[in-house]
Design goal:
Length: 264
Amino acid sequence: MRTQLIASAAAVALFAVAGAAQAQTVGHVGANYGRVELDAGALGDTDADALQLEGAVRFDAGSLGAQVDGSVQNFDADGGDATVWSATGHLNTKFDGGLVGGFAGVSTSDDVTLWALGAEAQFNVAPSTTLYGQAGYGRAEDLNDADLWAVKGEVRHFFTDNFKLQGSAGYTKADTKGADFDIWNIGADAEYQFASTPWSITGGYEHGEIDDLDLKSDTFRVGLRYTFGGTLRDRDQSGASLGSASNLFGGSLGQGVIAAVGAF
């Protein structure tokens, strides 16, 4: 019942994002395909296909800015498939050239739920370059009572208002009853919005490692997005490109672990 309620909330968030395209808001909806190559050391290698629907919308909440984002991602590997639902809410206040605020979110598969909260900030370090940082705490009782602490940073550079290149790096520390382990991930993403249209194409790569489990992953992703409310640069400056709780804790590798554990 808990998983069904959380999944329904994430679905409602996605529908709200899509419906917000008719209002005076800023955000996007999109779909992407990823190929995950997993190296499990002595246990061997495996590949998985990852299909995702995702979106985010930024709006005013009184004197504060707010963002709601949601996603549903299906992992399909030789051993079966699993789906992860995620939703995150953000509140922030703007200052000259940036913003600061907090977030709370949840990711869930069939039998694993991760709750998260934290703080985030965004600042223009140059006219066409944005620095974004996020730090948070997560709790997953279904993962052997795991406590997780994570930090992530992104640098976004806009060659034009509709062409963005982004680099990211993250670290997660997980403490469980049985073991402790560290997750590292780095990535690069690009997005190009076609002139005079709301449509953009995306592409990205992410590498993740869990050294203590001798686990490594490489994820390649391509996708299509519909942006409402302006250009890619407008989306960034409005505060509609804040990171989701689902990506904070280990990125694609972390989501894959939640999916895999929930499937068995």
